Amino acid sequence: MNKDKIDNIDGEQAYQTLVNWVKAVPNVLEEIKKNGTEDDLRNYKLQIKMVVDKLKEIEKNLSK
Q: Fewer CB near the last or first residue (10 Å), C or N of the chain?
């Protein structure tokens, strides 16, 4: 398998992982609101912000 094909597969897997994670966010937020603490909710929202910030950084680097 050549490097370009491996990179493409890795990119597709990373993309699919992000898609699945994003789809789960609303349900996880509801679950935390029902059964978690304020700290749990705050920490999960922080994780969301970190992912969004990283995606913006990746987008910026790809645009160069």
A: C
pLDDT in tens, the chain (64 residues): 565 665 667 778 888 888 899 899 999 999 999 999 999 999 999 999 998 898 888 878 877 7
Q: The tokens 């987008």 sit on which residue?
A: 59
Nearest to 59 by CA among 3, 6, 5, 18: 18
Q: Give me the number of domains the chain comprises.
A: 1
What is the residue-wise DSSP string for the chain? --HHHHHHHHHHHHHHHHHHHHHHHHHHHHHHHHHS-HHHHHHHHHHHHHHHHHHHHHHHHHH-
Q: What is the CA radius of gyration of the chain?
A: 16
How many residues can be counted in the chain? Answer: 64
